[in-house]
Amino acid sequence: MKVVCFTFNAFSENTYLLIDEATRQCAIVDPGCYDAQEQQTLRRYVEENQLQVTLLLNTHAHIDHVLGNAFVLQTWPGTPYLLHPLDLPTLNAVPLYAGPYGFAGYQPAEPSGELAAGQTVRFGDTELQVRFTPGHSAGHVVFYHAPSQALIGGDVLFQQSIGRTDLPGGNHATLIRSIETELLTLPDATTVYPGHGPTTTIGAERRSNPFLVN
To answer: Gene3D superfamilies from the entry (predicted)?
Structure first.
């Protein structure tokens, strides 16, 4: 599996394109593309690399991670869109504050399916394990690719930091528990691809993340 990162919108959100290199099928995770230039950047990469978009996934539904959902579904019709059901209220709240946040052109999109803890999602020959990681939001999940030890982590764990917990559905103790049980149980060599900022590894954060080291 090849991981391609695009950083979009005013929140500098990381949108991930996960590519099954054998079949050229791909999954788009947390599309944050909002304006026409950002949308064209994503579409051009898919077209120039002759990829087939077969899956749209959200780790969670805060505005910066869902701005491009409608664009993806309009550009590649019929693509399944999966979200954990506990984050549906978070998704449904986005239109209420999109304008004041400077995203008056936001277009809602409805999931066509659900994500659940322990579920396996597939595109091409690639399989991702869904791990349930609430704390930043009520229905947050992460996606783990065991063969390459890659974790698409959303806003749970960052380089030397963790996700904020002061938004609706957030809870600090729950987030720490999610990190301890669902992330720190992965191999130290696991690469974490976070929703913001640079990549890190499980081992590096286990050793020196100030929010995790007692």
So the answer is: Ribonuclease Z/Hydroxyacylglutathione hydrolase-like (3.60.15.10)
